[in-house]
Automatic annotation (TrEMBL):
Lineage, broadest ranks: Eukaryota, Fungi, Dikarya, Ascomycota, Saccharomycotina
Protein name: GOLD domain-containing protein
GO biological process per UniProt: endoplasmic reticulum to Golgi vesicle-mediated transport; protein retention in ER lumen; vesicle organization
Family: Belongs to the EMP24/GP25L family.
Membrane topology, from the record: Single-pass membrane protein; Single-pass type I membrane protein
Residue ranges crossing the lipid bilayer per the database entry: 172-192
Annotated ranges, domain GOLD: 30-117
Amino acid sequence: MKLINITWLILSVFSITCYAHNVALPPYGKQCFHEHLKRNDELAVSFQVGSRNSQNAEQFTIDFFIITPSGQVRLKKNDMDHGDESIKADVDGKYQYCFSNEKTNRVDLDVTFNVHGVIYIDVNDPKSDSLDYAVQRLSELTSDVKAEQGYLVIRERTHRNTAESTNSRVKWWSVFQILVVASNSIFQIYYLKRFFEVKLVV
């Protein structure tokens, strides 16, 4: 019976593993989300900024900040295209994390983010269970691996868009060069032909 309970506990931890979220930032706007934390819990947010237009290879930036339950800005990062930020809760309450596009009028900003963290367990507390601590640690490591994989997928997509845009420009530049060379060759043939023509004077 105890083995069944342990198996159920492990499966429930894996079932609540966070998945990547996507949010579109409006021009001169921001999007905020919140998590309820207890004292000494850790909140970690990893994010990547991209474009909803697959043809756009430009790297966009946003502002990111975390607000405490008292309304104070605990963490603020400006002009970031990606990040992996974390804080430890000082008090119990609702902590907000926000993605801001308030400085620009970009209409196609797309933010992919993962939220994960660590629930604090005092191992010296006689009421704490070492199995719970091990499961929480395993959940944390699994979330970290998943977040890193999601980050790499977004970076690969951004770099692929940049490479495709560069290849397209190189292709059209090559076509332009071929046209210039062909036009120059035709002109030289025509000019040399006129130069060597024999003109009879009657």
